[in-house]
Amino acid sequence: MTLGIVKRTEEEFADWLGTEWGFISGLGSFDDEPVALEQYQFAFLQNRSRFRWVTKSRQVGFSFLFALEALARCHLREKHTAVFVSYNLDDAKEKILVARQVHEELPLAYQKRLVVDSKTELAFESNGTNKRLSRILSHPSKAPRGKKGDVYLDELAHYVNDREVYRGSTALILRSNGQLTGCSTPLGRRGIFWEIANEELRKYPHHTRQYVPWWLCRFFCADTKRAAVEAPNMPTEERVSVFGRPTLIEQLDSLPLDDFQQEFEGRFVDETYSFFPYELILPCTTDDLVMVDDPTSMRAPEGRLVAGFDVGRTRDRSELAVFEEIEGRFTCRMLKSFEGTPFAEQEAELRRLLGTLLVARLSIDRSGIGMNLAENLARDFPQVVGENFTNDTKERWATDFKILLQRRDVTMPRDRDLIAQIHAIKRRVLPSGKVSFDAERNARGHADKFWAVALACQRERQSSTPRTGDISVRVLG
Question: What CATH number should be reported for the domain whose range is 278-457?
Fold first, then answer.
């Protein structure tokens, strides 16, 4: 439900435009459409607490709202600074893009002059004689220093250095009348965002908390007013069935239940059973990797290239991962998904990879439907190694990868889907006493991206009998 506000007098209207929510609702537009605030967005804008803490569903419009609030304050105040801290560089740039576009669509009579315009900063000059500047600054997850004003920590739970960023941000509002906002979807029962949101370890009395699940958002929910009352008392599957729009139902069908509850219902999922906790994964991710989509675009490697290919079954994607190994350290150079791609085309793409790059080893799943693909490639490329997926081999690959994470000897892109798939792997003891390593199957697959990465980064062991694809060399003399 959007907010309809009627002002009786010109003075009332002017006072309303002097608030952030009035400025945004009365003057703001995006893509030539007036900005329509949700109830929870309006509540956020009215929150004057020094510390605002928001546990939210994905895709409910808070990054957009941050850009709007910062822009409004830059125009309503003679001098103002807003600092965005984001999950990665792309997200940081996106907030600047939103603020710039909304500024361009403001009525000219209300616009301040834009005097600095870059991918990570906007500055507006006041219309008074002093010509003071108001600024919006945006950068990826690092502690902002040397600034004072409002600070927005967007998706804080997903930062590698979350505690450091939070600690460095609190000082920015001490000498100003600024606000510190922490806002995120959960990422397990860990980190400073979880500690403040749930207060299980200690109290944080100066933080106000807001909870925004999917059923409060019109994009996901068909009846937000009734859902606000009834949905909290329903099981997840029932409330999605009763209130969810098709886009939300699709998300539930595409994710394990725990993941859906964490991503869309703000639940801090206990990760006790994950073989790869977030504390192990996140320090091995970065936003600075040079990644390619096509082998012809890859620069000449300094080390050896190793690759893994997990062959998708009927409902799964096939996944390719290419890493550069230098002295035992693995750096991701390429990730590629094959969804609904015929095996002949997948084979052609792998042949192009092997014909273009000097790949030292391509480990490929040869179990079941992958057998013909592995045998065809191994016949022409001796560096192709067919791998059988068994409980024993999966335990070995998962353990090898965990050791790399523990030693910080692997570097991967800061990709939410990849991180989620790695974290989804669970170690279970079967009734037979054997150990199983796997993830729950969902509409997106079976942690196929993880297995491609694990195949690429496995420790290569010497064997008395050469495996398919091993090259034996006899030295003479």
Answer: 3.30.420.240
